[in-house]
Amino acid sequence: MALAAVHENSLTAFENLSSLVADSMRLVDALIDDHLKSDIPLIEQIAKHIIYSGGKRLRPALVILASHIHGHISPSTIALAAAVEFIHTATLLHDDVIDESDLRRGTPTAHTVWGNTAAILVGDFLFAKAFELMVTTGDLRVLQILSKTSAVITAGEVRQLVESHSFDLSIEASLQIMGAKTAELFGAACQTGALVAGASDQDALDFYHYGYNLGLIFQITDDVLDYQVTNDARGKVPGDDFREGKITLPVIYAYQMATVEERKFLNQTMIELNQTAEDLNRMRHLIESHKGFEKSLALAADIMRQSQPLTHKQGDFKVLLNGLLRECLTRNK
Amino acid sequence: MALAAVHENSLTAFENLSSLVADSMRLVDALIDDHLKSDIPLIEQIAKHIIYSGGKRLRPALVILASHIHGHISPSTIALAAAVEFIHTATLLHDDVIDESDLRRGTPTAHTVWGNTAAILVGDFLFAKAFELMVTTGDLRVLQILSKTSAVITAGEVRQLVESHSFDLSIEASLQIMGAKTAELFGAACQTGALVAGASDQDALDFYHYGYNLGLIFQITDDVLDYQVTNDARGKVPGDDFREGKITLPVIYAYQMATVEERKFLNQTMIELNQTAEDLNRMRHLIESHKGFEKSLALAADIMRQSQPLTHKQGDFKVLLNGLLRECLTRNK
Predict the structure, then answer these.
(1) Is A228 exposed, middle or buried (0-12, 13-18, 19+ CB in 10 A)?
(2) pLDDT tens digit sequence for B266-300
(3) Pairs of CB atoms within 8 A across A/B
(4) Regarding predicted confidence, which is higher, A289 or B307?
(5) Shortest CA gap A101–chain B (Å)
(6) Which of A275, A305, B186, B283 is the most buried (most CB within 10 A)?
């Protein structure tokens, strides 16, 4: 019920949207293919393997919709959509290396080592290619916004490494980290998608704010679903965050209300990563009993209320996006 | 003597050059400081530590000289010089992680792990900041050239990982890898430095070719010096390449002429990294006896002969650069 409240609905709009996005996404995919070509076959193999490993192309879809709402989807829209997906994939690749390094489970195997090397270099390659694609829009504002966004994402990563291994992380700090790591790129995708379609700077900025909030809502909902979904319909295994000791919003809310005994359990399972088979279920009930999921979704709903559309265009955008967002959340990331 | 032949001389020009570059470099350093500011103190600390750890700012100097030769050093020159240094530092940081992973000497310590994480993220941060700086030039050609260069550098890294762990690497392939990893950024620094000072596209392209060749000569000479310098005047320990099993040009030349017994030694020390204290000296004599250094420097001299200046500007540039290059090679990288 809480989830339904977060995701407002417009099914017919969503069907139109799906075909619109699908048509453009075919162009995006063709452009991605084209830009992954390399004299070094290994780069192409690894990059394609990663780019086509089940990502739902949510961020490119934001670019496409933001351009669509402002009148037209041009070659610049398509280039920008591909660039945003490249930036997203590059940060995911580097994240994986970092998370692995931090967990340090035993000596790395040869495969793990090659994996790290490939992840670092293919990430760098995709990042460079993203900027090559952006240059083709001929719009320096796009480059300015997305280079700044890239720096903010990285700074968010560092902040997360420094601050987020503690249950004392405040809700505010947690939202800021989420903002840097996820919401900024959502916002930039909406803003730049609007700009290349001819939106005024102010209209595009309004779209940035809407996209930013959408990113927060997306991440909060995703963090809740990681505990609630019990099958693999989303294509990822539930409980990943728990197993990795990722201190998300539901966990912070639960910790704030937890007893001494429960805090001992939280420390043991999520900081020391000393977990047994039943611990995920116990964790789920612990969060539930302290209204961790409810509070997280209430915060997401609050953020949604704060970003009411001001104009007709923003209203249309919101309807389309809510449909898209639900689609993404019920499949996978 | 061979080294002296490679580095043509013009001492007076070099003294003028030093003060010109020094003045501009102060502005570059101030801009670097400014762009390393971050809400996350750790980023600033790590980035500054790395940026100020003894780099000789050779690539920014190329940008400055290329602008100077074409009439004036503007704020765009300074921004570009800082950006090129950021790209160079970012690639060095990621290189370190990759080299460390490949060697895999024992289980990583906590310090090593934090080092890797920091190196990846600070590298990404610097790369993003480089593009922010480039945007301030307002020149899309600069962004086009340097995003392409960044992709080529990464592709060169991957190619090196795949191909260069064998003595059978051809001279041509070795030059291509050197080209991608080192010479492209030298070329791009010269080309974009010229462009932002108002050079024509063709003049700038000529500067690119000159810079590219300069990069090859720089790298070849550096690889020779790694065996020949016996004190630490360059700020780096001689024999690093040997200890890391880096198969450079002098080694390839030596291997081509080596006896069965010598090839056994080369395999044991440079592939298996099974080395004793006297092996560096033995290696030096082995390369010397097969004219590995001589042939490498002759190739560098050939490349220099192929890039004769066509215009007065290119002639001036060459005189200034030769002085600068020698200065850099006799100190450190």
Answers:
(1) middle
(2) 999 999 889 998 999 999 999 999 999 999 999 99
(3) 142
(4) A289
(5) 6
(6) B186
Asked if the model's pLDDT at residue B126 lies above 90, the reply is yes
Query: For residue A55, what are the CA distances in angstroms to A17, A65, A223?
Result: 18, 18, 17
Q: Give the best residue of A46, A120, A125, A148 to mutate against chain B (max B CB count within 10 A).
A: A120
Over chain B, what is the mean pLDDT? Answer: 83
The closest CB to that of B150, out of A97, A117, A128, belongs to: A128
B89 chain-A contacts, CB cut-off 8 A: none
What is chain A's alpha carbon radius of gyration, rounded to the nearest angstrom? 20
B191–chain A nearest CA distance, Å: 17
Of A102, A124, A151, which has the smallest distance from its Cβ to B129's Cβ? A151
Closest to B101 (Cβ–Cβ): which among A113, A150, A162? A113
Q: A-chain residues within 8 Å CB-CB of B148?
A: 128, 132
pLDDT band at A261 (very low <50, low <70, confident <90, very high): very high
Residues of B within 8 A of A143 (CB-CB) are: 131, 134-135, 143
Query: What mean pLDDT is predicted for residues B129-137?
Result: 97
Q: Provide the pLDDT for residue B8.
A: 41
pLDDT tens digits, B40-83: 787 887 777 777 766 678 899 999 999 999 989 999 999 999 99
Instruction: Enumerate the residues of chain B whose CB falls inside 8 A of the CB of residue A102.
Output: 113, 117
Helix, coil or strand: residue A156: helix
The number of residues making up chain B comes to 333
Q: Which two tokens stand for residue B88?
A: 């160079």
CB atoms within 10 A of CB A15: 11
| CB distance B203 to B70 below 8 Å | yes
Domain A2-330: homologous superfamily in CATH: Farnesyl Diphosphate Synthase (1.10.600.10)
Q: Which amino acid is at A216?
A: L
B113 with A97: Cβ contact below 8 A? no
Q: Where are the domains of chain B?
A: 2-330
Q: Residues A8-67: pLDDT tens digits?
A: 444 455 566 677 788 899 999 999 999 988 777 878 877 777 777 666 788 999 999 999
Find the closest chain B residue to A150 by CA distance.
B128
Question: What does the pLDDT read at residue B109?
Answer: 32
Residue A276 Cα, gap to closest chain B Cα (Å)? 26
**Cβ–Cβ gap B117/A101 under 8 Å:** yes
Quote the CA–CA distance of B112 and A102 in Å, as a whole number: 11
What sections of chain B are H helices per DSSP? 2-6, 11-36, 41-51, 58-69, 75-103, 110-135, 140-163, 171-178, 184-196, 201-228, 240-243, 249-257, 260-266, 279-289, 292-306, 312-330
